[in-house]
Amino acid sequence: MIKVKDKDFVPFISSDNLASRVSQLGVQISNDFAGEDPILLGVLNGSFMFLSDLAKRVTIPAEISLVKIASYSGTVSTGDVKTLMGLDIDLTGRSVIIVEDIVDSGLTMDFLISLILKQTPKKIAIATLLLKPEAFKYDFKIDYIGFEIPNKFVVGYGLDYDGWGRNLPEIYQLKN
Ligand SMILES: O=P(O)(O)OC[C@H]1O[C@H](OP(=O)(O)OP(=O)(O)O)[C@H](O)[C@@H]1O
Ligand SMILES: Nc1nc2[nH]cnc2c(=O)[nH]1
């Protein structure tokens, strides 16, 4: 068990499991997007570690760009998604792979998809390391899912609790 800020968390997904799953996703993306020169669009802050490891496993030419949006404060969503750093790349006619650490309710991703669609890309795909199926409220398709997890708050491998815990190399779940 570990303490992050003022809450206790228990080990949930080991760094070995993360590494092998991320590597499989990299192979899949490389096969599916061969010849398309995709853009890996990471969503800050949470996706930085997943994006970094995934990008190293993508063996085809790919651009990398970042957007920064946020809706969570502590362990709860504010229900209000804000763009804190916008797109700095033209997505017109491009194949865009959105890279997220987690899709929970789906609110953030839904917001991002509509933002990107305004730029008329050729294709949008979604890659998320984690998905909480019980919490997911939308019906957009998620193309690459690392792990489906229960509806409990997690930290580590980029994911934070109030800013803390992002640097942990494995994923932990909030203790009951
Ligand atoms: O599906 P949802 O319910 O919208 O939740 C998922 C979002 O929540 C987290 O971001 P957060 O707002 O905590 O910002 P961060 O990436 O800076 O940690 C996570 O990185 C996703 O972007
Ligand atoms: N750190 C963290 N951020 C989230 N954003 C949405 N769900 C979660 C979660 O379980 N953990």
Automatic annotation (TrEMBL):
Cofactors, names only: Mg(2+)
The protein's Enzyme Commission number: 2.4.2.8
Bilayer-spanning residue ranges: none
One example GO MF annotation: nucleotide binding
Pathways involved: Purine metabolism; IMP biosynthesis via salvage pathway; IMP from hypoxanthine: step 1/1
UniProt signal peptide: none
Gene Ontology CC: cytosol
Substrates-to-products reaction catalysed: IMP + diphosphate = hypoxanthine + 5-phospho-alpha-D-ribose 1-diphosphate; GMP + diphosphate = guanine + 5-phospho-alpha-D-ribose 1-diphosphate
Alphabetic keyword roster: Cytoplasm, Glycosyltransferase, Magnesium, Metal-binding, Nucleotide-binding, Purine salvage, Transferase
Intracellular or extracellular location(s): Cytoplasm
Record Gene3D superfamilies: 3.40.50.2020
Coiled-coil features, chain-numbered ranges: none
Ranges of residues in domain Phosphoribosyltransferase: 19-161
Any one GO BP annotation for this protein: hypoxanthine metabolic process
InterPro entries: HGPRT (IPR050408), Hxn_phspho_trans (IPR005904), PRTase-like (IPR029057), PRTase_dom (IPR000836)
Family statement drawn from the similarity comment of this UniProt entry: Belongs to the purine/pyrimidine phosphoribosyltransferase family.
Protein name per UniProt: Hypoxanthine phosphoribosyltransferase
Organism per entry: Rhodonellum psychrophilum GCM71 = DSM 17998
